[in-house]
UniProtKB/TrEMBL annotation:
This is DUF4810 domain-containing protein.
Length: 124
């Protein structure tokens, strides 16, 4: 009898612990955007716009931090669209919010700046 009671109490505590999921970070509509980006090209631009609005709003609110990698992902989206300056800006945001990303973000920023400089020199 005691064993059953202990088992029920443990199961209830375990389920209660699973029910309280306070996320550490803001994710916005990241999952939906990523899915649409690769699988639904007809709504890709609309989802990207909503994702960018989320990222812009997340910087002004005094709420949870944006999840690691979301600014970098936005930078990659912008780079794929051909907007190198916006990509660099998002990579710099990722670096400022997540200093752990410094080696990768610095390399990406440095490479993009070098590419921009090469393009400008060729234009002369």
């Amino acid at each position: 009898m005691k064993l059953k009671l202990i088992g029920c109490v443990c199961a209830a505590a375990l389920l209660a612990g699973c029910a309280t999921n306070n996320h550490l970070y803001q994710w916005g509509n990241y999952e939906d955007t990523l899915f649409a980006y690769f699988h639904e090209p007809e709504v890709k631009e609309e989802m990207l716009t909503a994702y960018m609005v989320f990222l812009e709003k997340s910087q002004t609110k005094n709420t949870k931090k944006v999840a690691p990698g979301l600014f970098a992902e936005a930078g990659t989206f912008m780079l794929e669209k051909g907007d190198t300056k916006a990509a660099i800006r998002f990579y710099e945001l990722e670096l400022s919010v997540w200093p752990e990303s410094e080696p990768l973000m610095n390399m990406l920023i440095r490479n993009l700046n070098a590419r921009e400089q090469a393009v400008q020199e060729q234009a002369k």
